[in-house]
Amino acid sequence: MATCEMCGHLGNVTKAIVEGTLLDLCDHCVRFGDVVAVKQPPQEVVSKRLDFLYNRRYLSTPIPKIEEYVIHPDYALRVKRARERTRKTQEDVALALAEKVTVLQKVENGNMQPSLPLAKKLEQFFKVTLIVKEQKADITQIDGLTGVGNTGSVTIGDIIKIKKI
Fold this sequence. Notes:
Layout: E1 2-3, E2 10-11, E3 14-18, E4 21-25, E5 34-35, H1 42-53, H2 56-60, E6 69-71, H3 75-86, H4 90-97, H5 101-109, H6 116-126, E7 131-133, E8 141-142, E9 145-146, H7 156-159
Antiparallel strand pairs: 1-2, 3-4, 3-5, 6-7, 8-9
Helix pairs in contact: 4-5
């Protein structure tokens, strides 16, 4: 006797796939999934089901590491100058990029930093550089301060200036 993984009923269970997950189900809950044949290896069935549910081309493409890239600090000025150089209105650019006019206005004013996908759109549209590779800061030295001893580590006491009252 085993427990049904869907309802918790004690009794005979059958292996079945429910929404891409292999579960042990009772006779009542087995109708919600596809029963796995005993002779067929379950992992093969699960992978076939997942291939059907998700397009394989999205699973096989490598995901770029977005955290390595940041938006350039003067993104607002670059976007505004590029738009003015092309002599287009904010409405024209927003329509061409399939974005809201208010989003473009906020980006140009510097009130909103664009997301990386939006920055890519703006880069391609205006042929400007907005996304730059992130510079890793050297944490062993901050404003001329170095850590205590030969370890080179920085402590919070090295950074904070204590104000005496």
